[in-house]
Amino acid sequence: MGRELWQLKLREHFDGKIVRKDLTKKIKEGANVPVYVLEFLLGQYCSSDEEDVIKAGVNNVKRILADNFVRLDEAQKILSVLRSRGS
Asked: Would you say the pTM of this structure is higher than 0.90?
């Protein structure tokens, strides 16, 4: 079987569960998040062979991480924001 046929079969049966490890490594360098969380998000938003879809998915994953995970050096800033909001 050719490589393209394998990719089609994998996408058919495991769509949303295939993770490109190169994307995981690329995003992990800037994110303080467990790898399994990152791989789950990449599987959800970057499960495609089209570069435009992958690029949009990577941007979406980065946005989700920025909105929901706190870097250690930003901890005091986040605590201040939470205190000002009251929750």
From this structure: no
